[in-house]
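Sample 3 of the quickstart, ligand NAP:
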Amino acid sequence: MAGPVFDQVLIGGRWVPAAGGTYPVVNPATEEIAGHAPACSVAQAEAAASAARDAFERGPWRTMSGGERAALLRTAAERFQGEMDGLVELTIAETGAVRAVAEAQQVRAVAGRLLRAAELATAPLEQGVPPRETGRSLAAGVIVREPVGVVACITPFNFPMTNCAGKIGPALACGNTVVVKPSPVDPLGVAELCRIVDAVLPPGVVNFVNGEGAEIGEALVRSPDVDMISFTGSTAVGRRIKEAAAGRMKRTVLELGGKSANIIFADCDVDRAFASAMSVWTFHSGQICIAGTRVLIEEPLYEPFTRRLAASGPTLRIGDPREPGVVVGPLVSAAQRTRVERFITRGREEGATLACGGRRPPHLSRGYYVEPTLFTDARNDMTIAREEIFGPVITAIPFRDEAEAIALANQSDYGLYGYVWTGDAARGLRVAHAVRTGTMQINGSPLNPDAPFGGYKLSGVGRVGGQWTLGAYSELKYIGWIA
Ligand code: NAP
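Result:
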């Protein structure tokens, strides 16, 4: 079965044939065709931006009450929930996620994000400012929150639908209109999501374009009809987008790469810390921006901890994500596997010890697999400790004391996320304060959707999550008068 064929893009409420026809989307587990995706033209991307602009100016989306927008977003979430079973299969086929990850983080999470967006839509739009004496009169006024306008939502390959929902949900909740541009590697689920949401909202509020090559995203970033770019992806592309957006001072939210430290003190609950280190291998094969890929381990624990990791890596079941019991699936594409293999070669050349993995699994003749890989005897200045690999590769580095752990964690161009494991609560808090990164999780604290999320340094610009999402996707206006 060749999978679904999407040969259309969504412009102004109408699905129209993509100018460039279709191209095949490859199932990374089997190298067979998972479906076909539309290849639109630059002119169609520009037309989608223009349609989003018309829908924004025309209303009624922008001028609806928050309650009305919330009701429509809830309906979209319910319709999405009604189609989740089929979407899980499609997601496994195009992303290579193992079933548990596809179900929870790739599909159910989307409905959760749309429902949270519905809650956001009802946040108060106005806030009074108390009168202030200014000499001869009183200044008084009100702050109003308004949509930014047209938001281009440009997303990466790793969690395509979840990432898209995390952008269109809040953008729509705030009254913006959107143009969605997913990664061409696995855009089919995103096309389905846009179909479902568009069917509920006024025409032109959600637009969808897709095609191979950077020019489609570039056209959106350049378009005078686009007011804001919400981008998740690599730091290299984020930098290009920020430069291109500067000309018209477009608002950007940039969620970029990471090289997060997972700091493990010898007094911690070692089994739980061990499970967190292993998640670099088992959670979507390390293709996660927040993965704790630099595992910093206190010296007395370093040797037994890494020995246990090296023994455990080869026991993890790697293979077709549809098979029960498989916990490590493929990388998303041949290109991604090549990138990861280059880093593995570099790690060996720079003198780190390959303690396990490093190869294509010999028993799998098809699919873009890389074995769970561990480098020991690594230094923080090695390429494998500095650059984002985005694959199942752990770099383990020893540290002597708290000060050295903090210094190593901070010797990074990135600052997206971080983890600390210790039996000493005060030390956990000290370390969490000292590491320059957008999030620090102590002893396996769960993800919290009410918390701000974003990066320091090369990991990005801006914050989303909880109430911070409102600030990201809206403008604040002050209306003042003399009292
Ligand atoms: P990527 O290569 O940066 O691509 C991301 C998106 O940008 C794709 O849709 C891509 O489409 C588009 N794009 C590329 N060049 C563009 C340009 N000049 N103008 C506008 N759009 C352009 O990232 P990826 O390989 O898909 O994803 C992996 C990266 O995402 C990792 O670095 C990871 O850390 C990051 N990520 C970050 C977060 C976070 O929250 N911080 C979350 C998930 C992933 P084309 O391929 O068609 O050009």
